[in-house]
Amino acid sequence: MSFGIPKVTGVLPAIRSIFADVLGDDDNPVPVLPAGLPDAVRPVAAEAVIRLIDYQGPGYAQLYVDRLKRFIGRRNLDDAVFAGIAQLMAMRMTYEDAVEMAQSKLAEYRAAGGKSPADAIHKLRLDELVSSLPEMVADPVLWALEYAGWLHLPVSMRFSAASRFSLRRLKIEASLKRWRLSSIRYAKERVWVERWLHMVDRSLTKQPAAAAEVVNTAAMVRGYGDGYTQNLRDWNLIIDSLVKPTFDGVLCCSDLASAIAEARAAVRPDPQQTSLKRAIEAIKARASAGEAGH
Questions:
Q1: CA–CA separation, 270 vs 54, rounded Å?
Q2: Tens of pLDDT along 69-100?
């Protein structure tokens, strides 16, 4: 399984993170919000930086800041839409994996002053768990699981701080964040975020009125397990069938914002995507009829 990203881009940050953990410090400075960031965006971005440092570290938060810099001074981008980019990008960069679930439970335990919060049970998929491992380890395991037909088997995981043993287990699971940047899951998430930002960028150039709707599509991709997989498939279908063809000039959709909103309203928890596909076909038919009428 390859995602077109050199393995070294993930392995080196993981190695740096390991040495930082051993030494008890972090070799990346806390990022500074860039000059020119609108006042309405700064509080959102500042909160996101803190969240991303907790999630992965200062180096990861710096990636977030660098991504924000692309939009500073962009034409057709109002502050509200920019704030939406800042908020949703932070949400997507702190995606839910088993490590994050352990981190969250530990944070609850500490916030409660050492009192045990209620246990959390999450149902993930086997391929989802394995994809959180370093690529060199995960690839052969995923191949074997696919061969055996076990790739999508559900796995229930309990996250608890009720005993000394369960607390120690939580800390071990949370410490695995050091490998996150070398995992297959991270490689996928990085590609997804970059594609979303690219679509936002194209919208600001091609159809500025649709930019807010393109930004807000990121809210579709959330959660974990089968729900996450379905959300991602729905997002890709809308982007590949409506958004990208419009920007490429293949589809004449003059009101892309309304088209995206209509498609999103048709999303159902249906693996066959019947309602969504029907809505997209109707939108494309109207766009074709409108083009023929000119």
A1: 35
A2: 999 999 999 999 999 999 999 999 999 999 99
Sketch the domain layout of the chain as residue ranges: 98-182, 183-294
217 in Cβ contact with 196 (< 8 Å)? yes
> What pLDDT, on the 0 to 100 scale, is given for residue 160?
94
C-beta atoms surrounding 46 within 10 Å = 13
Strands (DSSP E) contained in the chain are 120-125, 154-159
Q: How many Å apart are CA 199 and CA 214, to the nearest integer? A: 7
User: DSSP alpha helices (H): ranges in 117-183?
Assistant: 126-130, 135-148, 164-175
Q: How many angstroms separate the Cα of 175 from the Cα of each of 125, 158, 169, 189, 271?
A: 21, 17, 10, 20, 34
What is the helix (H) or strand (E) element at residue 152, kind and residue range? none
AA letter at 118: A
CB 237 within 8 A of CB 280: yes
Count of residues in the chain: 294
161: three-class secondary structure by DSSP? coil
Specify the 3-state DSSP secondary structure of 8: helix
3-state DSSP call for residue 40? coil
Burial class (CB in 10 A: 0-12, 13-18, 19+), 110: exposed
Q: Percentage of the chain surpassing pLDDT 70? A: 89
Least-confidence region, from 12-16, 46-50, 175-179, 204-208: 12-16
Report d(CA 63, CA 48) in Å as an integer: 12
Nearest C-alpha neighbor of 266 from the set 282, 288, 284 = 282
Tell me how far apart the terminal alpha carbons of the chain are, to the nearest angstrom: 47
Query: What is the C-alpha separation between 267 and 275, in angstroms, rounded?
Result: 7
Tell whether the model's pLDDT for residue 178 goes beyond 90: yes
